[in-house]
Amino acid sequence: MAGKTAAPPCSNRGVQNTSRSALRACVDWVQVTFKTVHDLQTIYGILGMSEDDFEDCPTGIYGYKCQRRAGHISILYDGGPDMGIHVQMTGQGCREYETYGPKDWRQFFADCFAYDGVFTRLDGAIDDIAYEGQQPYYTLNKLYRKVREGAVRSRFKRGKYVQSLLLEDGTSLGETLYFGREQSDIQIRFYEKDFERLDAGKELEEGIIAWNRTEMQCRRDRAQALALYIVNSDDIGKVLAGALRNYIAFCVRQNDTNKARWPLCRWWEDYLGDVEKLRLTMVAPDRTVERVMRWIERSVAPSLGMIFAANDGDMDLIMRYIIDGMDRMTKEQIALAKEYSDERERERREREYARRNRWNEYMFRSGAHRQEKNVTPPGERNASENESLL
What we know:
Helix content is 41%, strand content 22%. It has 13 helices and twelve strands.
């Protein structure tokens, strides 16, 4: 699939194995209710965000009359007498919180518990991202075949397989395999994250050939337990791998009628072993600024060129568009622009540091440091001196 864009994968499995994909664990949905908190200012403090980050919405949800939103992060209030204040972050909201939230997940969850927050839903996800030359741990088709041949042991009684299709030519738009019911205390699902992102109009980083996600949706007591585990240890892979071992086992089919004695598939054992080593990441996967820049280059630049030519090269008109656009930027866009600018400045400082190190190493090895103590690195000479070196 060409044109794929996502974040650099994170893994703590030791030295990178070029034949194996990289794993990353993340939080992918949060719902928490505060019944002892009665003012929004306290909720803003728990989130580590300000009142100005949020905007009023015309309607509430889940029985709450009022809602304030910052992107895909919602605060719901003014419900029934015992409903309290409810905070919800969708999957995209979790990525947004990682982008401009000042707290990591451990600190945020700890603050929720400090104010008697009750987690009603919390999803943990494992991303299996394979680049060119690598192999994912599994494919959805492989999982589905195992289910169809009865080579799965599971505490779940029912599952569901869904394939989205393009009706025009039957092209697959992604597969999802569910274990357990949506409203159960725990549901585990496997799906093709790369197809989901492309279908949502997002790009994938160049070179990605597969991106599979294993998602564990926890509700009620299971959500509370997962949040507490993350507070006490961000080795989230241990609890996710433990849950997978407890609920699902993909096996090698045998003649033995006792399925409990069937050995696990090697690829499933490898996957669980590496999942167990994962730590929770705070990496938002969308490199939004670069994606917008590519979109501008492909789609907007010709229109800007047309306007520029039609107005006799009037750059003032183009600048007015830019100034107007900056005035209308959302808080999320401002935060992303700052993050991108800070990252570029950090990379510039790293390049400068490396350049100076190379220069100092050259001076030391050449012995020049004993002869010319005031020699200036090439990048700091004035223009006339640089011209003499050409």
